Amino acid sequence: MYLVKEMFYSLQGEGAQTGRPAVFCRFSGCNLWNGQERSREKSICTFCDTDFVGTDGHGGGKFREPEELALAVNQLWPKGVSGKPYVICTGGEPMMQVDEALITAFHNLDLEVAVETNGTLPVPESVDWICVSPKGTATLVQTKGDELKLVYPQYDAMPEKFEDLVFDYFYIQPKDLAYIAGDVGVQSDVLRQSIDYCMTHPKWRLSIQTHKEIGIE
Ligand SMILES: C[S@@+](CC[C@H](N)C(=O)[O-])C[C@H]1O[C@@H](n2cnc3c(N)ncnc32)[C@H](O)[C@@H]1O
Ligand SMILES: Nc1nc2[nH]cc(C(=O)O)c2c(=O)[nH]1
Ligand code: SF4
Ligand SMILES: [Mg+2]
Questions:
Q1: How far apart are the C-alpha atoms of 198 and 87, rounded to whole Å?
Q2: How much is the pTM?
Q3: I need a labelling partner for 167 at 20 to 30 A (CA). Which of 25, 126, 133, 135 fits?
């Protein structure tokens, strides 16, 4: 059984695939936060910008079989849009649910498969695009992939810790402070610090959450 919060067709807003059309499949639940605001502060991941609780979002639900979920995703790729359909498995933490059977079901329908993961759980090699976004003190187990996209700054997870891992692209993504309760800093300072870091460490590129800027999902 796969629990999905929501599914929608949009453009990848972040990282190396920015601007690319994709079906987003947002899995329910996360291993670094239970999604309840009252436990945010004491969770391992404190700045999450996403509601991943339950299955009540648009296109969300419970899918008994991998083929059933793959079909539902495939149906969100608009008829007549050329090219291979691209699905981004996100969440919540998708690797709590994504398994070989689901990846195979996607591939059998000729979909290209990406994941957005916090890197605390292993990702099968069969996934076509792996984006790892490390979180605070959480132990990283997925130490290779296509892109490493670090939300910045995180004082328990600074870029130096990750720069020798095996990824093709390294991104700094300014932390969006809008979701954090209390006095947590100034958004313009976060942006300035992120720009400064990239300008002094050319291995790292800036990733802006463009979907938030242009007002799409
Ligand atoms: C909601 S997470 C879901 C996937 C997975 N759990 C993870 O953390 O990578 C999707 C992406 O949004 C990023 N993100 C979450 N909250 C953010 C925030 N407040 N500011 C910037 N990026 C954020 C995550 O780091 C991740 O790259
Ligand atoms: N447009 C858009 N791009 C995204 N890239 C990663 C996202 C995510 O929440 O995982 C996301 C998202 O929520 N929307
Ligand atoms: S690990 Fe990802 S989904 Fe989980 S709380 Fe953090 S940003 Fe949100
Ligand atoms: Mg998002």
A1: 29
A2: 0.98
A3: 25
